[in-house]
Amino acid sequence: MQGKGKGAKSAAKADKAKSKASSPKARKSQQGQERFRPGQLDGLVLGYLKKHKGELPVSPTTVARGIERSSGAVGNCLDRLEQAEKVKLVDKKPRRYDLAGSTK
Fold this sequence. Notes:
Number of strands: 2
Order of helices and strands: HHHHEE
Distance between the termini: 83 Å
Shape: elongated
Number of helices: 4
Strand content: 5-15%
Radius of gyration: 22 Å
Largest sheet: 2 strands, antiparallel
CATH topology of the domain at 40-99: Arc Repressor Mutant, subunit A
CATH architecture of the domain at 40-99: Orthogonal Bundle
């Protein structure tokens, strides 16, 4: 009678972990979208603001709907961009942002 030893169990765990890490599911967000690399959302948000200059100032929710990302992630991104002085906060409540060098 052949039984499974410790070596077989650890090999099975390693195979399971390897397949889980390489599966496409591991690289997707909860909404099923590809995850961005650090800073990649910044470019998308700035691109949206530049493309929609006539609609500025806009809320994080408006931008999020436009680029199909979560409003929380976009809000955090806009906060970072404000700290980097790439956008400016025009209204605190409700939060509305404009491009930093933009004049009307």
